[in-house]
Amino acid sequence: MTQSPPPRPAEAARVRAVLGPTNTGKTHLAIERMCGHSSGMMGFPLRLLAREVYDRVRAIKGDKQVALITGEERIEPPDARYFLCTAEAMPRTAGQHAFVALDEAQLGADPERGHIFTDRLMHARGREETMILGSATLEPMVKALIPGAEVTSRPRFSTLSHAGVCKLSRLPKRSAVVAFSVEQVYAMAEALRRFRGGAAVVMGALSPETRNKQVAMFQAGEVDYIVATDAIGMGLNLDLDHVAFASLSKFDGRRKRRLTPSEMAQIAGRAGRHQRDGTFGTLSGTGKGDGEPLQFTDEEVYAIEEHKFAPLTHLFWRDADPRCDSLERLIAALEARPDKPVLRPAPEAIDLAVLKRLAADPIADTVRGAGSVRRFWEACSLPDFRSLGIEQHARFVARLWDDLSAGYLGADFVAARIAELDRMQGDIDTLQGRIAAIRSWAYICQRPDWVLARDEMAARARAVEAKLSDALHARLTERFVNRRTTLLMKSLGQDASALPVTLEPDGHLTVEGESIGRLEGFRFHVDPTAGVADRRMLLAAGEKALPALLESRAEWLLSQGIAELEISGGAIRWQGRALAEIAFPGHPGSGNFGTPKLTLTRDVALLPDAAKTKLEAGLAAWLDKQLEPLEPLRKLAEAARDPNAGSQARALVITLIEARGVISREEAGLENLPKEMRPYLRKLGVTFGALDIFDAPLLKPAPRRLLHALGLDTRSVQEAMLPVLAEGSWAKGRLPAGYRYAGAQAIRVDLAEKIFRAAFDARAKVVEAHPKERNRPFRVDLALAVSVGLEAENARRLLGSAGFRCERARPLPEGAHGPAAPDRWYWRPRRPEEREARRDARRGAERPRHGKADRKDSRPGEGKPRQDSKPRGEKRDDRRSGKPGGRPQRDSRPPLPKPDTGPARAGGAFDKLADLLKG
After folding, report:
1. CB of 376 closer than 8 Å to CB of 328
2. Is 629 helix (H, G, I), strand (E, B) or coil?
3. Can you give the pLDDT at residue 899?
């Protein structure tokens, strides 16, 4: 057995043990004492606590004077004089620093790590002062192991009292809920999210960075609750008022047992800071499952409140510097028994279990010599951050040793392993697994003789761990914290003016950065991600601040955002929401098209009355300017109300207004209109066309779009009002307003009228030159029609709808040269009986047929046999025979169809067409 000699009396005289319960200022005292010396070192049970004290000392002494040394992290400036370490990373040298302190020294009684603290308790010494910090239960051990040491007891600054059993839904603010399993921690955090808006989460499985961020979130007041395992009892300084136990039992690695009173006190003592008293208790509904509530015994309550616990009777010990001549001697030294009665051999830890497991494998044959044995023991001492268990962790150590036995781990190999873990995707458990794995590599990279380019690889590992910790913190916050609900609960009962609701530029309403809903126009919508329990609270919070916000929003809209308004669906809209419905006075058929009436929608119901009146006036002024393109329609409306216009003219004007500017001659009732009224109507802009009567200015894009947006014309609209529409560019049976069919295309009615006029002018010239010849053929130049986009064949069909018939010219014989003969045109309007038959056919086509074989296209002029337009007696030129006027040869092929020169799809109207031609 190898055991260090007991300290000499001179050394013992410089040792001071400061013992007492939590919240006695022991750690604060040690920091002050260390900063008063020229150099110092402190050992802590947690990397998290070491980092916290490191930050405090660095703020006092400066970055260059302070170092942080843990298993996974090493920040050591060249001139550092103050070292903050974890107990495992704390050097065993004595006298190297003027001051040395060991915090939470009572952990020497811990079965897993106790031998580390016992060794530091017995051997870590400062040249000028040594301080042992711990629970009062440690006093017998200090006196037994360090004779002559000065023992000082410190009382607790505040009172700790039992508060009994409490429901989770009634848990007071600034409380911690303590559980002893991951499942229970998650369940408590989820419940607090529903009842109180969320909680921070602290577990031993989290990385120190993640725990720091969760604790900082609680300390900053972002959440009022924290859910933690017993890791909260290890020196974490929190502003807690109450500690609630969700369980009083835990699994210690071997069995599930009830906490000892001292363990309960270590955790409960986190409640109350400095002079502020604290309370502890249990949660209802978390008992044994048999209806018995979870509660402390009277003895346990007395012990915790009075800080009276059974003193420690032993500490665990293991040789901290064993002989490494061989693996057998190393194992024997680690299993040796101490010779002091207050020390007990430490239970087999995982490092020793891995050593014994690998010593029985063939890999042990590669371990030869004292240096190799010590290096192998260092590899076996790699902490099992991933909690894999002995077998899997032993295999990981074996693979590590395969590389270490040959020298160093290559930088490329280590960089590749770190890069494999540099992924932020995944849930909480996945990220926890990656953090544990990167901590293993961070530990490996800290070893001075294991990795080439150690500093670079260590920096990479720390960077990846920091990123993973940030991602894990975000996942925990996303899952267990509803910050919005937390903020709103703090604001309950406040005045509307005091509620910190802000309207963001994108329309979201936020409370200290958390969205509670969105304004679409002037309508408030609760955030769709809110649960059922939160919706009422969010709606109430939004409606408190809405009147003032909406008033400023209305002022901005009228002053700066007026260009964002639009007319659609018969309403003025903003951001897709209707602000005011637009209605025109009068009733259908009255021809009344006066000043529109605005009716504000329910979206602006929360506006104050004064702001609502101002908004309505502003919208009315804006609408009046937008209606300028409909000025021709207003002129027609004024004429419809003019008693001097005559009843027949007013009737036509009203019909034209109700048709929104375009009507066919068939439906206009021109037979009742006196000829002397036409000049009056032409002055109003009315055009009497061959087939249509229309107001040309209303065929421009702006008025057509506006009529459609106002809901005054429900027909489809062609946005640009193109001259000609290609086939298939409109829905079947829904020709856009202002167009008529031209074969397979559609043409705007005013352009169709120009083409008709050109054809009538060509005919008029022939009639004037040959007044005595009846129905003399004439020529029509299709250049105008083709120039606007009509195909020649569709132009012929358009002219056919107005009564023009085309006699196609015979093609040149084969082998002939010269220009082709022009087509010959005739004007053959239908007789009244033909018009009646055509009108009846169109009405029948509007009624759907249900027959199987007789369903045909109802377009007039299509699908009917075409009459030969050649005069009788004229010889035909049969191209198939190859001989002019010859008999056609027999051919089994069907004859080619003749080009369709019949009327266009829309039926022509020839009422009073003679009057039109006469002027």
Report:
1. no
2. helix
3. 44
Predicted structure pTM score:
0.58
Q: What is the torsional sign of CA 861, 865, 866, 867?
A: negative
Alpha helices in 296-349 (DSSP H): 298-306, 327-334
- Rounded CA gap, 595 and 293, in Å? 76
- Of 564, 561, 541, 553, whose CA–CA distance to 611 is shortest? 553
Residues of the chain with pLDDT under 50: 1-13, 290, 493-498, 587-590, 846-919
Query: Hey, what amino acid is at 216?
Result: A
pLDDT tens for residues 138-165?
A: 999 999 999 889 999 988 878 889 998 9
How many CA atoms does the CB half-sphere of 167 hold within 13 Å? Answer: 4
**Cβ(158)–Cβ(225) below 8 Å:** no
For 48, phi then psi, to 5°, come to -60, -45
Which amino acid belongs to residue 284?
S
Output the pLDDT for position 490.
57
Contacts 24+ apart (CB under 8 A), 894-897: none
Q: Which residue has the tokens 């363990």?
A: 263
Residue 489 pLDDT:
59
Dig out the tokens for 663 from the structure.
Answer: 């009507």
Query: Residue 203: which of 234, 168, 224 has the closest Cα?
Result: 234
Q: Which of 107, 139, 12 is nearest to 316 (CA)?
A: 107
Half-sphere CA count of 178, side-chain side, radius 13 A: 28
- Please state, as a whole number, how many other Cβ atoms lie within 10 Å of the Cβ of residue 421: 19
Q: Give the whole-angstrom CA distance, residue 701 versus residue 419.
A: 61
What number of CA atoms fall less than 13 Å from residue 650's CA on the CB side?
Answer: 14
Count CB atoms within 10 A of the CB of residue 311.
12
Do 782 and 742 meet the contact criterion of CB atoms below 8 Å apart?
Answer: no
**Number of neighbouring beta carbons within 10 Å of residue 258:** 13
Per cent of the chain over pLDDT 70 is 82
Compute the Cα dihedral for 875, 881, 884, 886 and give only its sign: negative
CA distance 198 to 190: 7
Residue partners of 221: CB distance under 8 A and separation at least 6? none
CB 488 within 8 A of CB 496: no
Locate tokens 């609960």: which residue? 489
Q: Name the DSSP class of 271.
A: B
How far is it, in rounded angstroms, from Cα 376 to Cα 497?
Answer: 69
Residue 82 contacts residue 57 (beta carbons within 8 Å): yes
Largest Cα separation within the chain, whole Å, is 150
Residue 596: phi and psi, rounded to 5, are -70, 155
Positive or negative CA dihedral for 298, 299, 300, 302? positive
- DSSP-based three-state secondary structure for 686: strand
What is the three-class DSSP state of 579? strand
What pLDDT was estimated at residue 335? 92
Say how many C-beta atoms besides its own lie within 10 A of residue 899's C-beta. Answer: 13
3-state secondary structure of 801: helix
Strands 129-134 and 15-19: parallel
Q: How far is CA 860 from CA 270, 567, 867, in A?
A: 94, 38, 14
**Which residues partner with 244 through β-bridges?**
177, 281
Which structure tokens are listed for 358? 């690998």
Q: What are phi and psi of 750, to 5 degrees?
A: -70, -35
Question: Using an 8 Å Cβ cutoff, are 73 and 208 in contact?
Answer: no
For 653, the 3-state DSSP assignment is: helix
Q: What are phi and psi of 219, to 5 degrees?
A: -65, -35
Inter-helix orientation angle 208-219/454-480, to 10°: 40
Q: What is the pLDDT of residue 122?
A: 92
Backbone angles phi, psi at 434, to 5 degrees: -70, -40
pLDDT in the model for residue 44: 92
First-last CA distance in the chain = 132
pLDDT number for residue 833? 63
Query: For residue 398, what is the enclosing H or E element?
Result: helix 390-404
Q: What is the pLDDT of residue 773?
A: 84
